[in-house]
């Protein structure tokens, strides 16, 4: 590393450009590592505690070394599907381009240090952070060592990863969010009381205990502030007392005071012996003084890596100093974008020059320093791997996720909007089919209409409700699965079971109103079978919605696909078309409204009963089995239809889980 020299504000040619940078006052107290002591400026918040568990020294310090890290993506051309079928699966086909995002990044971060990765948008900061966190493995190359060990899946329980977007449940309170995370993530050796106490300690240490009973909130729901939300995200990771913290732009979108407090929190974490790596965009001069090391990136290349306090001197020695007093981070970003020169061509030349200069001078020195670091002890290596067992059993995960899911949807359940919607539709249907009869052919035709409406309505309604489940929770699922929070099977069963109470109570309300207003078969057994049929149809419909949502994971595409499927099922449901062409007849056998409609008909009508048909027989009656409105459905029985619905229920659920498993195989 180049020796530290005072910044005189003079270019290499001897002309004075003004002071290189301004930040803290010269009279400001500094830490032993040269950092200024920054006071806590956020009004109304208590100072962070330094002697309690989560900010105290960690048990397993981790040194991160990365050498010649590269990352490339495969860019495929937007070609018609029939052309893509002919492309080679190896990726060497015509038109396939490989683009390298990171170009040989190297460095090391020791316990107790905070590394800031600085650079403009598109410089590769987030990509590098994800590679270092083990979240981007396919396409990555180079050596990344944690206490001189390669990445292992169990290491993720020693890491805390905070994404740029705060992925939290909007309807849970701060206390509930951290308590459920503690119960799911902390080791089974701790009692329930100890885990809950841990969540309380985290809230106190991060200064969010005052808003512990306030919901997180979202775009259309008022909750805690942005700074508090970010601290909840950090607390979510601090619960496990991680040795390595990785944060993606933790100050993005926050005001300067709140951002400073977040950086103060990270500084406290580093003081406790943690290794802290964060990307950051345009930090203030006070924040800049808090960084131990700086990695300046431009277009995936390293322009500078080393002590943050030496960065300005390094560039001054190469003839780059600001013309006037400025925030050092702002000037470094100008260098990373090449804006110190006039014109886009000169800007690219500046970036190329600085990348080449680093590779020839500073880079080799830093590699030598990294090679000279002491090797990790066998004890530290063994402890850094982490436990390969789950923090709690499958049953505990299922119960906790189910309870969390019910609480998360309590506003939806108690809001009454869906209840009012179902009651309104039920009353309208009850009025339209009020006191229906089955005496004549016209009466039977009208009565079968309400049965077909029930089979289609309870096919559409639950499907489009379930359709949003997995696409809306994709970010949350990826986040929690990436840190090994629970098994996917536990989440899948908990999520589907948690939805059932709300989904199943609606058909019950519907049938209570419609069944008796429409004067359907007066029999307790018939009513119960009628209700059970609709409940089974709801579960099948919900399962199909989960399958489509898990497969597509895009709401617009999923909604379009679901509409096409349900319209096809509607048309082949046995009500509109009696004689379906042979080549498309198979559609009705995979249509669950088809089986639901047939089952409702068999429950409603006795094959031995008759209806009035003047002139058709001596007694002017006909068997109801022969009524044209029944579309030739053989009355009696119903076991085949019920079994078909049960098979669809199991099949759709299994396929939905399989789709979810394939989608999340990279985040386990």
TrEMBL record:
A GO CC term assigned to this protein in UniProt: membrane
Taxonomy of the source species: Eukaryota, Viridiplantae, Streptophyta, Klebsormidiophyceae, Klebsormidiales
Gene3D superfamilies in the record: P-loop containing nucleotide triphosphate hydrolases
Main location as per UniProt: membrane
Entry protein name: ABC transporter G family
Pfam families: ABC2_membrane, ABC2_membrane_7, ABC_tran
Organism name: Klebsormidium nitens (Green alga)
Cellular compartments annotated: Membrane
CDD domains the UniProt entry points to: ABCG_EPDR
Location of the region described as Disordered in the Swiss-Prot/TrEMBL record: 1-50
Keywords: ATP-binding, Membrane, Nucleotide-binding, Transmembrane, Transmembrane helix, Transport
The family this protein is said to belong to: Belongs to the ABC transporter superfamily. ABCG family. Eye pigment precursor importer (TC 3.A.1.204) subfamily.
